[in-house]
Amino acid sequence: MLHFVLCDDNIQILNRLEKTLETIFLKHNIDAQISLKATTSDEIFKYIEKNQVDVLILDINLKSSFSGCDVADVVRKKNKSIYIIFLTGHLEYVLIAYKYKTFDYLPKPISDERLEETIVRLVEDTKNAHARFIKLNNNTLINEDTINYIRKDGTKLIFCTDTHNYETYSSFSKIEHCLPDNFMRCHKSYIINVNNVAQFIPSDNLVLFENGSFCSVGAKYKDKFLEVFENGNFTNNLECVNK
Which residues, including other chains, have CB under 8 Å from residue 241's CB and lie 6 or more apart? Predict the structure, then answer.
């Protein structure tokens, strides 16, 4: 979930911004919430000390001893990954604002369409920023999150996603170090991405995925798989990968 913090010394602007953002979250099915609405810099400084903040939407021209740029400077020194979006009616601040690695700059009065475009682009950026990729022998890059399972077929490995299967000559033991904890061995021929499992049918020892594909769970891996699938215990899930 993305945690948004809003700061403007005009409470009416804050309230309207909150409602517009919530409409955008709902429209685009964005997992986000407004964690704080603040009218002063002190509120921001106190909040970021103990709370997660992913996005800060900040008025530059705050009527206090700290300007929005001052607030951004303090915030950026504490957390380099927070997305900062500036609001202002003063165009002369644009170049100064980007000094603080600003994601975007929205002139007042704020256009709903412009705000929506910025938020959608920001969400896409967060997905790409956290994406990890596996590089195959032919230099193909696969986003780990898109992989449902990896199937061993002789001297080949087949990386199965919702839309495409990628083949490479390799072995489970060679890719083990590249895979995060949510990948686990469930069969002598399968490593699955537990995060993408849609359903597990114990009676048939089958794992199902959203696109209709499936793979088997071997008897020696079943108990471990059940523990991970039901309890999320992502620890040493590939300990049997070389066996």
Answer: 172, 173, 176, 185, 191
243 residues of the chain, pLDDT tens digit each: 899 999 999 999 999 999 999 999 999 999 999 999 999 989 999 998 889 899 999 998 887 778 888 898 888 888 888 999 998 877 666 666 666 778 888 988 999 999 999 999 999 888 877 667 888 887 788 888 899 999 999 999 999 998 889 999 999 988 877 788 889 899 999 999 988 888 889 899 999 998 899 999 999 988 888 877 666 555 445 544 443
The answer to whether 233 and 227 have CB atoms below 8 angstroms apart is: yes
Task: Give the start-to-end residue ranges of the domains of the chain.
Answer: 2-130, 134-231
Q: Are strands 197-201 and 206-209 parallel, antiparallel or unpaired?
A: antiparallel
Domain 2-130 falls under CATH 1.20.1250.20: no
* CATH class of residue range 134-231: mainly beta
